[in-house]
Amino acid sequence: MILEGRILSPQGFVRGRLHFSERILAVEEAPVEGPYILPGFLDLHVHGGLGADAMEGKEAVLRMARFHLQHGTTGLLPTTVTAPPEAIEKALRGIAEAMAECEALLGAHLEGPFLSPKRLGAQPPFPQKPDPAWMEDLLARAPVRVVTLAPELPGALELVRLLAGRGVRVQLGHTAAGYEEALHALEAGAQGFTHLFNAMTPLHHRAPGVAGLALERGLWAELIPDGLHVHPAALRLALKSVPGLYLVTDAVAAAGMPEGLY
Fold first, then answer.
1. I need a surface site. Which of 141, 142, 216, 254 has the fewest CB within 10 A?
2. Which residues are catalytic?
3. Residues 71-83, mean pLDDT to the nearest whole number
4. How many Cβ atoms sit within 10 Å of the Cβ of residue 130?
5. What is the domain partition of the chain in residue ranges?
6. pLDDT confidence band for 206 (50 / 70 / 90)
7. Are 5 and 35 in contact (CB under 8 A)?
8. pLDDT at site 223
9. Tens digit of pLDDT for each residue in 81-104?
10. Where are the alpha helices (DSSP H) in the chain?
11. How does the average pLDDT of the chain come out, rounded?
């Protein structure tokens, strides 16, 4: 098969023809017109879309996945919010059921509920203290790939060690931690940072905060690149500082809906 257009290459976009079968066979540069040709997007932090929310069960998860597939996202992590335990358990059950029918669903991202009450942002007001026994139960309900937590909470470091031992990526976010508290979490096995710069202690030259730690030592960090959550200059700084910086939508159910009140 052959596709013509602007092909993403290690050197940037080039005009040409992409020859492929099950794998790419060749790229032939040529002065052709056509669409952009690039791998599907991965969105590792997405709450919903087209009126569907990841907290609402299997059918809603499938609906949001179909919506994002239409916009080029071929792999995503449906993301939960801070909510009562039964609501989170229902959400994970729905994600697991939907995964059996949709290969684009790569697992679950638990954003909370182990978050700082001081840095909830747009999260519902249901933060909870880290609970290893309950986390074990949640891990049994669905393939949890990422957990966002606040490292300053009592018991958080124990939870970080548990999750890291299970191969779950722990990200620091929605946190009022200082630099040293967050550093202890990295030493315990945390690897990433959730929506860098947002809902975390900011960088100051005398108190680097969680944002400063991410820029200094972060292996992974997600960032919302809509131009509203983060200034373009801060995005460029993050690109220079974090080897594994990746972009997320953090989209909610209203994404893709007509203008209105939701």
1. 216
2. 250
3. 97
4. 20
5. 2-36, 39-247
6. very high
7. yes
8. 99
9. 999 999 999 999 999 999 999 999
10. 58-69, 85-99, 132-141, 156-165, 179-188, 209-217, 232-241
11. 97
Phi and psi dihedrals of 45, rounded to 5? -155, 95
Write down the residue that tokens 């939508």 correspond to: 249
Length of the chain measured in residues: 262
Q: CA dist 48 to 22, 66, 97, Å?
A: 31, 11, 16
Of the candidate CATH numbers 3.40.50.720, 3.20.20.140, 3.30.420.40, 3.20.20.220, the domain formed by 39-247 belongs to: 3.20.20.140
Put simply, whether the predicted model's pTM sits higher than 0.70 gets the answer yes
Q: Which burial class, exposed, middle or buried, applies to 87 when counting CB atoms under 10 A from its CB (0-12, 13-18, 19+)?
A: middle
Record the tokens describing residue 167, joined without a space. Answer: 């191969």
Angstrom CA distances, 158 to 126, 185, 234, 251, 257, stand at 21, 9, 32, 30, 41
39-65: burial string, b at 16+ Cβ within 10 Å, e else: eebebbbbbbbbbbbbbbbbebbbbbb
